[in-house]
Amino acid sequence: MPSGIPPSQFHVLPYANVGAGEPFVARVMIGLLEILGAAPYREVEKGKIRDSITGLGTECLIPAFISLRELRQTANRPDVPVLNKTKNFDDVYKYLWTAYKDRTQTTARLMGYDIGFLFQKDSKFEEGCAAFPKANPDVSSELIRVMKIYRSTWQPELLRFRNDYLEHQTISREAVAEFYSLEKAERMFASVWIAIEEILVLLIAAKLSLGITIRELSKSEQVTGIPKRFGFAWENQLPPK
Length: 241
Known about the structure:
The protein has 241 residues and is mainly alpha-helical. It has seven helices and two strands. The chain has a two-stranded antiparallel sheet.
């Protein structure tokens, strides 16, 4: 921003027409930052983590959503050129993979955690699943459980599509034809942003002060128009498992 210019002379432009009513905005870009606010990081560290989560949303998830939103209008229309639709499909998956593999890993690193094993080969992943809890005993075992779910469901599919088709063209378009359907794009978008939310909230929760934990909000507790998923609780107030 230029220095010495009064606010009255700023050139204001709209940034994105995506609001807090979208669940991924409410839960990743608002909800996670609220929970981060309660974690006892030094202010400089917290600022870097906050910027990383915000950038993950504005530079990856929102662009993916904009392409997906366009596909909702065009994917099943025969009058829209095929290449227009193909570009939007490809953009959805490119942005999602960057958000998941690069930005989430970077954010975790700023929090003090190495989750790189999530993206390594099977043997290294299993080694990481055994080593991570020992190195980070305060992190809930739920993290490893959900990581194993991602690895056994959608993550290998997205990796194969991004690496073997989009990047290196070692497989044919026919081999990834299912990725060019609106239903697949919708499912993958939801899978990725929910995974990001789950990973980061579990890492933040491990840093909270003793006695404070994270819980899922009921619908009646959610602010109208901002469907956040998580809130705070005292550990002794949680129902028994």
